[in-house]
């Protein structure tokens, strides 16, 4: 669901950069206090896992392909602020090395997946962990993917309304909400299930080793 | 004679009808072929693409990739050509291709160096966290 370069209008990505800059500054605030010698290697390992997951393409019915994000596991293990920073780093690498997501689209990708996805995961987990821990983790991961996909689809679907040529044809991404929302969301309902299974496995691994849960 | 007058006008009407004919001329010309695939090699097939001359917003051509993910078009003789391809689920590319005289169309990053790029990215990522760890240790000593 990484948005490439050339798909978003400047009217979209410039305000998004301003918003993301504020969010990155907020996430980095107090970073010193939150990091310790045990947490940094764990965060590095999980960020590397998220980086790897983003490169493993899984065929999705309909002829396209998708991949897991790993945002939920970062958010549940380290909290949404560290998850947002770590996932933004993953997005930069994926963009520069693989063209998976653009530099102009970076703030939208980071806000949709790294921030909204992380907060969605933490919110769902907090709401449900009292009922059943495993189900809470799984649902948190699934919701995280679906919320991220919905935001990406909304931003893409808005492009024909935001920037047009003189004759009314879209200047950037050409498909409207009615096409983009189902095209992006439906595959991610399935991808979210894979993300949920993966997040539960990583969560159990971390719990067995008594990693501190930030959420 | 008056009754024959409409019949005599028929050839004029036929001349008007010619304006609705579409004529075809077939000629061979060297085309630019850009093959688009997903990272796993799956063709980016039957997806929308636009070809633009240089910095123009108005496309020279709009079309769809074929079953093998190929966008085929005649590039302008001079200046860069911009190829944009979109799928409804947000995949696609925005490529700038050199003029045909400059040689074959530039390919995006080659797929065969992907493992090297994966390792390079992993190295960069771990280097960043290594620096964070050093910074954190230095802070602890300070």
Number of strands of chain B: 6
Q: How many E-type strands of chain A?
A: 2
Instruction: Note the total helix count of chain B.
Output: 2
What order do the SSEs of chain A take from the amino end to the carboxyl end, as H and E? HHHEEHHHHH
The dominant shape of chain A is globular
Mean pLDDT of chain B: 82
- Uncertain stretches of chain B: none
Mean pLDDT of chain A: 90
Instruction: Provide the CATH architecture of chain A.
Output: Orthogonal Bundle
> What is the chains' assembly state?
heterodimer
CA distance, first residue to last residue of chain B: 115 Å
| CATH architecture title of the largest domain in chain B | Sandwich
Would you tell me the structural class of the helices and strands of chain A? Answer: mainly alpha
Largest beta sheet of chain A, briefly?
2 strands, antiparallel
> Which radius of gyration of chain B do the C-alpha atoms yield?
28 Å
Q: Into which percent range does the helicity of residues of chain A fall? A: 55-70%
Number of domains of chain B: 2
Strand content of chain B: 15-25%
The pair of chains with the biggest contact is: A-B, 47 and 39 residues
- Going across the biggest sheet of chain A, name each strand in turn: 1-2
Question: What is the fold named in CATH at topology level of the largest domain in chain B?
Answer: Immunoglobulin-like
């Amino acid at each position: 669901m990484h948005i490439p370069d050339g798909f978003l209008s400047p009217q979209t990505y410039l305000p998004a950069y301003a918003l993301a800059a504020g969010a990155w500054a907020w996430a980095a605030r107090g970073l010193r206090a939150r990091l310790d010698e045990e947490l940094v290697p764990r965060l590095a390992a999980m960020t590397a896992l998220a980086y790897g997951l983003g490169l493993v393409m899984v065929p999705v019915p309909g002829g396209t392909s998708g991949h897991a994000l790993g945002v939920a596991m970062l958010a549940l293990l380290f909290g949404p602020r560290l998850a947002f920073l770590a996932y933004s780093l993953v997005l930069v690498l994926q963009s520069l090395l693989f063209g998976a997501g653009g530099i102009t689209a970076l703030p939208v990708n980071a806000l949709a997946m790294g921030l909204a996805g992380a907060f969605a995961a933490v919110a769902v987990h907090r709401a449900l962990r009292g009922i059943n821990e495993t189900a809470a983790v799984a649902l948190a991961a699934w919701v995280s993917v679906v919320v991220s996909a919905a935001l990406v689809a909304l931003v893409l679907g808005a492009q024909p309304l935001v920037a047009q040529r003189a004759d009314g044809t879209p200047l950037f991404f050409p498909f409207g909400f009615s096409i983009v929302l189902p095209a992006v969301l439906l595959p991610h309902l399935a991808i979210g299930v894979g993300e949920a299974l993966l997040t539960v496995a990583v969560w159990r691994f971390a719990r067995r080793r008594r990693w501190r849960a930030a959420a | 004679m008056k009754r024959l007058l409409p019949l005599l006008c028929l050839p004029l009407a036929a001349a008007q009808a010619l304006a609705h004919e579409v004529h075809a001329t077939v000629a061979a010309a060297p085309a630019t072929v850009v093959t688009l695939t997903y990272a796993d090699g799956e063709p980016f097939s039957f997806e929308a693409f636009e070809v633009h001359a240089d910095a123009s917003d108005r496309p020279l051509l709009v079309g769809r990739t074929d079953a093998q993910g190929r966008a085929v078009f005649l590039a302008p003789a001079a200046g860069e050509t911009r190829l944009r391809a979109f799928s409804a689920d947000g995949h696609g590319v925005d490529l700038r291709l050199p003029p045909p005289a400059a040689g074959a169309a530039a390919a995006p990053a080659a797929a065969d160096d992907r493992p090297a790029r994966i390792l390079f990215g992993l190295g960069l990522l771990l280097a960043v966290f290594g620096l964070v760890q050093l910074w954190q240790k230095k802070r602890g000593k300070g």
